[in-house]
Write a structure and sequence with these properties.
Length: 185
Amino acid sequence: MGKIINATYMTLDGDITNMQDWHFDYFGEDAGRSAQEQMQGTDALIMGRETYEGFAPAWSERAGADEFSDRMNSIAKYVVSNTLKDPSWNNSHVISGDVVAQIRELKEKTEGNILQYGFGPVTRLMLENGLLDEVRIWLHPVLSGKAKPSELLYRDAVQRKFTLTGTDVHSTGVIILTYAPVPAE
């Protein structure tokens, strides 16, 4: 059975949506190694429609650029969406209807990890249903000044606790904080 891992890139002020403004200043050798290791153990990606719509053109343009890009383009991708019908990005599949059951089935039939980038409604759904096994926060030493409150996204969210299971400190100041959800009572 696969393990579902969420990887979220974040600034000190909680920005997870404007990576183009701050992430690449901190992407050094350590981050390249960590990203490569994370991808090597991954057999599939899972994402929401918005992440898919950002990733598909960006990664498709990088086809042939390097090993990581080629892996990103060839790996099985599962998009949770009720509106996306015909995904054009290579090896992409839509999950709709009984999303929880389909993610549970995907997890059971996948041997390696299932990686999810970003933190949003799909992450929340997986957390609420005991499907998310690990959260990796790639904390960047910068204030973006563009963080938006997430009160609408998490208004009715159930409080969850996590246990710190690892840290990876990079020379650029990025710290990858790895957490496992504490089982709901």
